[in-house]
């Protein structure tokens, strides 16, 4: 379980929809079409009204905005007035959703009923041990275990997260890194949800947790080959930026830890890892538009030296095996190309790099995994993922077979390079996540595991399609749809549309057992692969960021119009969902085209773009300037202001809105959605439900236990199904 080189692309993660559920019987009829519900949930009277307090947010260039709800920001999370308001909103949400309590309970049982509760991961072999993760029936958290030599050997439980989380409102086990000799495991944990990790070390032979305790760290760990030195990254306590790499020697005071590297540029993230060859320890830093790697000899660590110096708009990721560095880079290659540098050649001069795989205008190279006998290249072409198998000398060049027209494929855990077997994952909207093993020498393919989906699920009862919507500027936008077999495209159905569209993070058409509960009730499920992601290559990302950001929002709306026009949904019978930067998408779309949606769900939404980007004390802000722009520049200020959901709230009718947040969220601070809801409630002209649900004990990802999250999903689905007229 040694940490390998981490991807260096910075990205916020969309709220995950993945899960496992129970569905209706295979012969259950689809729900009949009917207009979206106009009935009221609960008693809409008595909604919390946030006090308005005058406050001016002034930009460095002199522009000023009134933010009457700025007082809802409390960095201590202790202000009684703020907590009272959030609790009042939670109570109001309970009141409004009260009539759907039975529906929520039924949905929860349905969602949980699809889960194989005692499931386990596919074991992988590394350094003499088989590693895997398993769950026990009724337990919220996983158990991390290993067996020496063979899967028939006695199980050694490394971490029972259920025991570690006992008595805690929130608990998350982060990275686990086993020492080179296999005796010790360094681990990171979070009991708040703010991603300020505590680093500890466990003796796997005795079960003892050593006295060494490091606080205020990131989730990146790396062992030295001496089995005594642990490298970690120290965070800034306010901004949570990854600032300093330090080396801790077990048994010595943390205060005496040696400074290895300090990052001075606040626009960069940091991570660490070992090369595939295990010959080098590396520190990687990356911003939105550039990256840099520093490495040192793993056997005799010294100064971490730069492989290629940073430069704006120059990105690379490098790994080492077979006596050379293999580098995936955008140097003179928008969609990246693969280059190499032989051992013995000087670092620091990229002119010495030799091209292995050339650039393509149609194919994005997203990653490279090295094996002794071949190279596995992760690519995107035509909006879909694929894996290319290539010999080191380029004589063989072939693709891993895909079984469907719309799918998601990616590398699985390939812990050791000395094998002909390649592990990869495969999924589609109808095919549960499946792990395959492919012998690259013989072509033999073995299915190792398909995600079990209980409750009578049969993939043959569902149909997926790959469609292309035409955006208003003529761009063809890919769309993946899922519906129950027998569905009639007659323009009467309900539709649930999801997207993300930021940071180059692609929304691939993977299996989501949760949405079966929507599809079995007659809804069509659609994933819009809009600009701002990277589904269609690097340019697709560039065309949905900075001064092109509006394309993300209009693409989403245009996909809705396309699906309605093609008969997949009735006009006004569309629900939309997005989270984090996808929550920004929801907020912008709600302002721009509220009449097109019967309901909207915004999870942990990034909605106060300008104020947040003006405040460099907020975690992530400085790292985001090349994604959104720096509002200190009037050009970017004005552009961000033109779409910022909080600033563009209008006196108009809005669709029913369910907004969620976590009090301890370090990525999108709770006060952004809280302020947005407060302003919406004071400004909008309709009487539709507007609900703010704050998890008072969680961060960006919601509650920490696996079953607890299904409660949140059940509430979301009950809200959506009600307003789509499917209950």
Summary of the model, kept short:
This protein has 727 residues and is α+β, with helices and mostly antiparallel strands. It has a domain at 56-113 and 455-723: Rossmann fold (3-Layer(aba) Sandwich).
Oligomer: single chain
* Largest sheet descriptor: 8 strands, mixed
* Mean pLDDT value: 91
Q: Tell me the strand percentage band.
A: 25-35%
What are the segments in which pLDDT stays under 50 over at least 5 consecutive residues?
A: 4-39
- Physical arrangement of strands within the biggest beta sheet: 30-31-33-32-34-35-36-37
Distance between the termini: 47 Å
CATH architecture of the domain at 56-113 and 455-723: 3-Layer(aba) Sandwich
Question: What is the overall number of helices?
Answer: 12
Classified in CATH, the superfamily of the domain at 56-113 and 455-723 is Alpha/Beta hydrolase fold, catalytic domain
CATH topology name of the domain at 56-113 and 455-723, in short, is Rossmann fold
What's the total count of β strands? 37
Rg over CA atoms, rounded to whole Å, is 25 Å
CATH class division of the domain at 56-113 and 455-723: Alpha Beta
How much helicity do the residues have?
10-25%
Structural class assignment: alpha+beta
């Amino acid at each position: 379980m040694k940490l390998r080189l981490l991807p260096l692309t910075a990205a916020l993660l969309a709220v995950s929809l993945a899960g496992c559920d129970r569905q209706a019987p295979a012969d259950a009829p689809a729900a009949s079409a009917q207009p979206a519900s106009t009935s009221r949930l609960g008693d809409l009277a008595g909604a919390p009204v946030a006090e308005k307090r005058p406050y001016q947010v002034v930009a460095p260039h002199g522009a000023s905005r009134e933010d009457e709800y700025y007082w809802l920001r409390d960095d201590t999370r202790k202000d009684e007035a703020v907590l009272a308001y959030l609790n009042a909103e939670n109570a109001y949400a309970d009141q409004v959703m009260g009539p759907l309590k039975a529906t929520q309970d039924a949905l929860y049982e349905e969602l949980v009923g699809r889960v194989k509760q005692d499931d386990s991961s596919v074991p992988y072999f590394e350094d003499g041990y088989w590693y895997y993760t398993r769950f026990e029936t009724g337990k919220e958290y996983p158990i991390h275990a290993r067996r020496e030599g063979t899967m028939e050997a006695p199980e050694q439980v490394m971490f029972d997260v259920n025991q570690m989380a006992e008595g805690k409102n929130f608990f998350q086990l982060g990275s686990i890194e086993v020492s080179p000799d296999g005796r010790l495991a360094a681990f990171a944990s979070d009991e708040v949800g703010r991603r300020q990790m505590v680093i500890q070390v466990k003796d796997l032979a005795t079960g003892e947790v050593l006295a060494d305790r490091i606080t205020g760290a990131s989730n990146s760990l790396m062992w030295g080959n001496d089995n005594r030195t642990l490298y970690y990254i120290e965070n800034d306590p306010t901004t949570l930026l990854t600032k300093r790499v330090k080396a801790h020697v077990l048994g010595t005071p943390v205060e005496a830890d040696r400074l290895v590297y300090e990052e001075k540029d606040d626009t960069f993230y940091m991570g660490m890892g070992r090369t595939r060859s295990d010959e080098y320890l590396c520190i990687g830093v990356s911003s939105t538009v550039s990256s840099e790697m520093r490495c040192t000899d793993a056997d005799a660590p010294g100064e971490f030296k730069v492989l290629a110096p940073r430069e704006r708009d120059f990105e690379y990721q490098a790994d080492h095996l077979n006596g050379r560095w293999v580098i995936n880079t955008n140097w003179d290659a928008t969609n990246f190309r693969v280059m190499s540098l032989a051992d013995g050649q000087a670092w620091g001069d990229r002119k010495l790099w030799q091209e292995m795989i050339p650039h393509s205008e149609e194919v994005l190279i997203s990653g490279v995994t090295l094996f002794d006998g071949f190279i596995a290249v992760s690519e995107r072409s035509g909006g879909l993922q694929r894996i290319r198998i290539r010999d080191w000398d380029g004589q063989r060049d072939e693709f891993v077979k895909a079984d469907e027209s719309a799918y998601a494929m990616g590398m699985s855990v390939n812990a050791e390079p000395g094998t002909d077997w390649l592990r990869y994952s495969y999924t589609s909207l109808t095919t549960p996540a499946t792990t395959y093993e492919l012998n690259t020498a013989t072509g033999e393919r073995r299915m190792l595991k398909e995600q079990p989906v209980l409750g009578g699920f049969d993939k043959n009862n569902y149909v997926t399609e790959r469609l292309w919507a035409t955006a208003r500027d003529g761009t063809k936008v890919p769309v993946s749809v899922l519906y129950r077999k027998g569905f009639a495209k007659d323009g009467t159905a309900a539709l649930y549309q999801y997207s993300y569209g930021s940071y180059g993070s692609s929304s691939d058409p993977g299996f989501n057992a949760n949405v079966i509960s929507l599809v079995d009730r007659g809804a069509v499920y659609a994933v819009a692969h809009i600009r701002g992601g990277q589904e269609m290559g690097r340019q697709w990302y560039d065309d949905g960021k900075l001064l092109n950001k509006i394309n993300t929002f209009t693409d989403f709306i245009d996909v809705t119009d396309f699906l309605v026009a093609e008969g997949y949904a009735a006009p006004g019978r569309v629900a939309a969902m997005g989270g984090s930067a996808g929550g920004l998408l929801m907020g912008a779309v709600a302002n721009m085209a509220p009449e097109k949606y019967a309901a909207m769900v915004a999870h942990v939404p990034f909605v106060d773009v300008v104020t947040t980007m003006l405040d460099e004390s907020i975690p992530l802000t400085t790292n985001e300037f090349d994604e959104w722009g720096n509002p200190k520049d009037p050009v970017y200020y004005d552009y961000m202001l033109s779409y910022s959901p909080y600033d563009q709230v209008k006196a108009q009718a809005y669709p029913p809105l369910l907004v969620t947040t976590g009090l301890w969220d370090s990525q999108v601070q709770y006060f952004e959605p809280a302020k947005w809801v407060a302003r919406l409630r004071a400004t909008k002209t309709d009487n539709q439900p507007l609900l703010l649900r704050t998890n008072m004990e969680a961060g960006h990802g919601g509650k920490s236990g696996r079953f607890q999250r299904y409660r949140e999903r059940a509430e979301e689905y009950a809200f959506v199904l009600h307003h789509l007229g499917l209950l």
